Amino acid sequence: MKFRTSFFHKGLALNLLRRCWPVWLAYLAVMIFEFPMNIYGNMQSWRGPLPDLAEMLTNSILNSACSAAEISFFVCIVVVMAVFGYLYNMRTCGMINAFPVRRETVFCTFALTGLVPVLLADCLAALLTVILIGNAAPAWTIGQWLSMAVMSNVAFYGFGVFCAMLTGSLFILPLVYLVLNFTAVVVEECLHALLGVFLYGYARPKGTISWLSPGNAVFRDIHVRYVYDRTGIGATAYSIENASALITYCVFGVVFLLLALLLYRKRRMEAAGDTVAIPVLKPVFKYCMAFGTALVLAGFVTSGQSLHSRTAALLACAMLLLGAFIGYFTAEMLMQKTVHVFTSRWKGLIITWGILLVFSAFCEADLIGYEKRLPSAEEVESVSVGAYGMSELREAQNIADAVAIHRDIIAHKDEQEKKLDSSYATTINYEYHLKNGRTLRRTYRLASGEQERQEKGDLWQMQELLNRPEAILDRVREENGGLTPESIDRASVYTRVYDERTRYETEKDLVLTAEQARDLYLNGILPDMEEGRIGRMKFFEKDDRLSDTSISLELSAAEENFLGGGTSPVPARRFYSPYFSVDLDSVHTIAWLKENAGLEVMPYTRPSYEDDMMIAAPAYTGVG
Q1: In this structure, are 577 and 493 located in the same domain?
Q2: How far does Cα 316 stand from its chain's mean position?
Q3: What is the mean pLDDT of the chain?
Q4: Is residue 537 part of a domain?
Q5: Which of 206, 257, 415, 456 is deepest in the core (most CB within 10 A)?
Q6: How many domains, the chain?
């Protein structure tokens, strides 16, 4: 008689359900409270117009879907610890494996019995929501909630089971799960911080590996997006940003379950209690701890610190060595289960230190020529330069001048880094678009103090470049959705008034109609921008061209957005309000304001802070 191979054992499943039912019941209670009861409570307390009820419920349900994914991150590891907890006790592990049941059957039984109740709880919560709110909310929103809850549970549960196969310690399991869920984003951030210290001009690449950290994606990247429409139809669009990432994580969750099965088949059951359950992974764990701790400590200490040049590099190098020491011997203590690990095993640490020192010296000496790599003007199709906003330059002379300024910045590396220790700084970004299709990006922090303004140094030259007509026009249009006269709804002209007696600054405003605003733009602001007289970038506090007048244009630019769940696109509009300081040489704008609004633009003068303090608080004369 042929025996059928079974991958599920009913007796083991029932035993597991009897032991662990409080875990699943607690999850069901949390889901009911978070979803149906929360949504129903919002619906009952609604006092607004009835047509807006569906909009409010849509927002609430989608926010609850994001919360369900976050809850899943914690719940799944708790379920895994409850279901596979027998692996971490020698006696229980031996008893389970003494049963005449194949290892594949045991694994599949426990894995499925742990996951299915979680998914059933999601379905029950969604069903109860349908019963409570009926047709008050679009059906696709509840479907999206259920899909996100199910996918996140499969993703985190599968990854949690995989982590459970790597260790024999119930205490280490949640730590492994937490660390591996955020490893990619932490390593990326720390590595960028270190390279920013070692390499002058280092710019973060546009690509990112943060998507390899599911925990980061759930808590930071997946959220509800809202766009409001003021076109008169009152349309509102809601969607969940980056929700499609859960599909990828769900697939990987299944893959991790299969990998966990392969590890379970070869797992030594006597590894119960060991920090690392798989012998071949012990050196991997140790060196990952050493390099990881070194990178995190050095990246954390150097990120945002004000040191520069060799001092910062030496600090980063010292933190790398200290972090490696801490991580290396912490791993040894965990694996050996003793603190007496310092008398031997130094060989691996010395090798680790050597690798870190070579890496530091290699970067600081710039052996690959990263810092001095600069394209010639003839190779450049266009270059985007800027600080608070980017300007794309295409004119040959502007490109040549941008490259020349960049060459000066590189040549003044030591001088700039010394100034930064005692001066304010402005971050300048370069992005070259080369004719061969490649791009080159660099970022610099340039001194922006009064001395730099007087000496007309690198930042001054950059300011002059960014205040050329091409740069101004591109920056203004790019930052405001492609500014056109037709998109202008109205304008406000503000006049600052400083009262010498009260020492208070007030502001008077004059509202212009759409027709007046468009005429002001076409015959005042635009001609001044084309001559480089308005819309300037200002990196220094002192400016002799300041006036008491500024202008704010109110714009609207059409943008199409999509509701989630495969529905039709909903039209929406994003609004912009470009702001222009009217300098004393903005001749066209000043003339328009005088002729059409009767406004006289005057220089703006105000006593210094020290003068204010002297008047507000007279010096003590000693008279009682």
Answers
A1: yes
A2: 24
A3: 85
A4: yes
A5: 257
A6: 4
Task: Answer for the pair 161, 77: CB distance below 8 angstroms, yes or no.
Answer: no
Domain that holds residue 299: 286-364
Strand partners, 547: 603
In a domain, 230, yes or no: no
User: For residue 565, is it left (φ>0), alpha (ψ between -120 and 50) or beta?
Assistant: left
CA angle 239, 240, 243 (to 5 degrees): 135
16 and 144 both lie in a single domain? yes
> Three-state SS across 272-290?
CCCCCCCHHHHHHHHHHHH
Provide the CA 382 distance to its chain's centre, in angstroms: 28
What was the pLDDT predicted at 565? 43
9 vs 386, which has greater pLDDT? 386
DSSP one-letter code for 306: -
Q: Is 240 exposed, middle or buried (0-12, 13-18, 19+ CB in 10 A)?
A: buried
Q: Can you read off the two tokens belonging to residue 568?
A: 């039709």
pLDDT digits (tens, 9 = 90+) for 249-267: 999 999 999 999 999 988 8
Residues 551-583: pLDDT tens digits?
888 876 545 444 444 444 444 455 678 889 898
Please state, as a whole number, how many other Cβ atoms lie within 10 Å of the Cβ of residue 443.
15
* Cβ neighbour number for residue 139 with a 10 Å cutoff: 10
- Counting residues of the chain whose pLDDT is more than 70, the rounded percentage is 87
Q: Which of 466, 493, 528 is the last residue of a domain?
A: 466
400 with 486, same domain?
A: no
On whether both 522 and 410 belong to a single domain, the answer is: no
Give the residue with greater pLDDT, 238 vs 211. 211
Q: Which of 22-36, 79-93, 415-429 has the highest mean pLDDT?
A: 22-36
User: Is 17 within a domain?
Assistant: yes
Domain match, 62 and 115 both: yes
Whether residue 267 is found in the same domain as residue 332 = no
DSSP 170: T
Cβ-contact 64, 93 below 8 angstroms:
no
- Domain-terminating residue out of 314, 338, 364: 364
Residues 305, 417, single domain; the answer is: no
Contacts for 529 with CB less than 8 Å, ≥ 6 apart: 469, 472, 473, 476, 535
Mean pLDDT of 201-222: 90
How far is the C-alpha of 536 from the C-alpha of 432, rounded, in Å?
22
pTM for this entry: 0.82
Q: Which has more confidence, 196 or 561? A: 196
Beta strand extents in 448-588 (DSSP E only) = 488-499, 504-512, 549-562, 569-576, 579-581
On the question of pLDDT at 195 being above 50, the answer is yes
Q: What is the pLDDT of residues 477-501, one digit of tens each?
A: 887 777 888 888 889 998 887 766 7
233, 221 Cβ separation under 8 angstroms: no
Most confident of 122-126, 302-306, 536-540, 577-581: 122-126
The answer as to whether 32 is a domain residue is: yes
Q: Do both 256 and 306 map to the same domain?
A: no
| DSSP class per residue in 362-402 | HHHTTTT-TTT----GGGEEEEEEESSSEEEE-SHHHHHHH
DSSP sequence for 189-252? HHHHHHHHHHSTT----S---GGG-HHHIIIII-EEEEEE--SSS--EEEEEETTTHHHHHHHH
State how far Cα 349 lies from the chain centre: 34
pLDDT of residue 290: 96
Do residues 306 and 423 make contact, with C-beta atoms less than 8 angstroms apart?
no
* Helix and strand counts by DSSP (H, E) for the chain: 21, 11
